[in-house]
Design goal:
- By secondary structure, the protein is mainly α.
- The protein has seven helices and no strands.
- The longest helix is centred in the first third of the chain and has 28 residues.
- The protein starts with 5 loop residues before the first helix and ends in a 7-residue tail after the last helix.
Length: 146
Amino acid sequence: MYYVNREQIELRLEAVPDIAAGLRHIFATWNGDLLQGLVQERCLHLAIETVTDVGSYIIDGFIMRDASSYEDIIGIIHEEGVLDDTVFRSLLELVSLRKPLVQEYFHWDRTSLHPLTPKLPELLEHFVFSVHDYLNKELGPRPEGV
């Protein structure tokens, strides 16, 4: 029997609307100032953490093979049928930004709109749908009030 921590997965997925709204706002109003650059940077970082945290919970809960990297988390959940090919490729691109954002932040260009910023809100929403769809197929619908 699997123990999939749906509560923790849902807590993370509930952050997606705010992240998507932040990215949409930045894209719609981009002028390249420092504050917008920092907001974009944080939204990208939160998107990465959300996707990899959820992926880790799925991997652990369904006892999938151990991931060796952030990219591997995305690869495993793709191999297991959580993600389609398009979402998989885009999320790989997203998680490849983790090192520059977290470890090499002093080199991050805060004056440019990142190419993922306009695409990411829809991608994250698709990710949420894909995760819910997978969990419902594997475990059944989530009980009401849980």
